[in-house]
Amino acid sequence: MKEYAPAQLRNVGLFSHGGAGKTTLSEALLYRAGAITRMGSVVDGNTTTDFDPDELKRQMSVSLAVAPLEWQGHKINLIDTPGYADFYGEVSEAARVADSALILIDAVAGPQVGTDAVWKRTAHLPRLLVINKMDRENSDYRSALDSLRERYGKGVVPLAFPICAALWTFSKARRTWRATSPPSQYPIPSRRP
Ligand SMILES: Nc1nc2c(ncn2[C@@H]2O[C@H](COP(=O)(O)OP(=O)(O)O)[C@@H](O)[C@H]2O)c(=O)[nH]1
Ligand SMILES: [Mg+2]
Question: Could you tell which of 16, 29, 42, 49 is best to mutate to test the pocket of ligand 1, judged by most ligand atoms within 8 Å of the CB?
């Protein structure tokens, strides 16, 4: 077995309100890093971190699970946790051993009660928030980000801004500007007659 120096080890906890996509993201990260050759799904009951018969039956995590992957010479131990309130004990255990936290937010629902719970339990850790499920109908990156800043303070800063959200913000600003500013002295001629 390959040995790693302590500086090359990272324990990353995945936390969120139930159903925001932690198990699916763990599976995708494992697949991307080459730790697994086929990406399983929660619905099919074949993910790496949900293996307990209860988890397969309910299609949700009920206990924490550790899944290692190697990335750029570092061993990253992903700690997938359950998101439902009945299992917060597992969340606290994971927060105790993790070096950092990845907190997932549903892009449709925004921060939820479970997000507040994991935010409190990971206060001692460096945290990266992931606005997930951006492919879903009515997903709204901007509004999720605004709610996060409102709830957890201005310390929440976007490191990556999806181009679709950026374009939306730009077009909204342009519409507002057009609606509120006086007509230009030099109107842009229309291409159509
Ligand atoms: N549309 C969409 N569905 C997702 C995404 N990530 C997870 N899901 C679905 O959301 C449900 C809950 O996901 P799961 O990974 O079990 O969430 P967890 O409870 O946070 O571990 C499952 O049915 C997933 O297939 C995503 O990015 N987009
Ligand atoms: Mg899960």
Answer: 42
Our CA angle for 9, 23, 165, nearest 5°, is 95
Span 109-161, pLDDT tens digits: 999 999 999 999 999 999 999 999 998 988 889 899 999 999 999 999 999 88
Q: How far is the CA of 178 from the centre of ligand 2 (A)?
A: 46
Fold of the CATH domain 6-161: Rossmann fold (3.40.50)
Domain assignments of the chain as residue spans, ordered by start: 6-161
Which amino acid is residue 163, in one-letter code?
I
With bands split at pLDDT 50, 70 and 90, how would you rate the model's confidence at 69?
A: very high
Instruction: Give me the half-sphere count of Cα atoms (radius 13 Å) on the Cβ side of residue 104.
Output: 24
CB of 136 sitting under 6 A from ligand 1: yes
Atom 14 of ligand 1, nearest CA residue: 21
